[in-house]
Design brief:
With 193 residues, the chain is an all-alpha fold. It contains five helices and no strands. The protein has one domain. It starts with a helix and ends in an 11-residue tail after the last helix.
């Protein structure tokens, strides 16, 4: 029996996933002993395995929720940034058109003003690009920080689960002793039978 089967309670879930196999005939004493071992395994580890499964499900649910929250937060920030940029460009276009309409009669003044507006637009464009770059960097850092937090939380949760995991050597010794007691082969040292 593999360690995965030993930790699956009575083994019903593993048996449902395997293709149907024909049962091998067992002697009466072997099948009753195996039934007792299955019952003991279910009593000892059934609740622990259900607890592990529940913890993994909660952990997965938490990670999925936090990932969705992060995705939604990122989408909202990009939408807000896009809206801000669009409004700024519309405002710049409005000012440019207004200036052009007001100065239509004075060609020299208009040319001068258009040059100034071009410089201002270029400066505003540079500022806007710098702002977008800074917001992009901030957003990237925020995503990286969240990623690191999620990774650290996941590592902590796995370490907690690993710490709570039963020691295989102690489990093997326990099963050996139980089997020997069931077969009346267990002798306590120093006690005469």
């Amino acid at each position: 029996m593999s360690p995965a089967e030993a930790f699956q309670g009575n083994g019903n879930a593993m048996e449902q996933l395997k293709p149907a196999e024909e049962p091998k005939p067992r002697p009466a004493t072997e099948s009753s002993g195996a039934g007792n071992v299955d019952k003991i395994r279910d009593i000892l580890f059934g609740s622990q395995m259900r607890d592990y499964e529940h913890r993994f499900a909660r952990l997965e649910e938490t990670l999925m929720k936090e990932s969705a929250d992060l995705r939604e937060s990122t989408r909202k920030r990009f939408d807000a940034l896009e809206s801000y940029i669009r409004k700024e460009f519309e405002a710049l276009e409005g000012r440019l058109k207004s200036e052009r309409d007001e100065r239509g009669s004075a060609h020299d003044a208009l040319a001068k003003r258009l040059g100034e507006l071009h410089d201002q637009t270029a400066a505003a464009d540079r500022d806007l690009r710098a702002g977008m770059l800074q917001q992009s960097k901030d957003l990237g850092q925020e995503i990286e920080r969240r990623h690191l937090e999620l990774s650290a939380m996941l590592d902590r949760r796995f370490q907690e689960l690993r710490k709570d995991k039963t020691d295989r050597a102690a489990l093997s010794a326990l099963f050996t002793e139980v089997a020997m007691r069931l077969n009346d082969e267990f002798q306590v040292p120093g006690v005469d039978a």
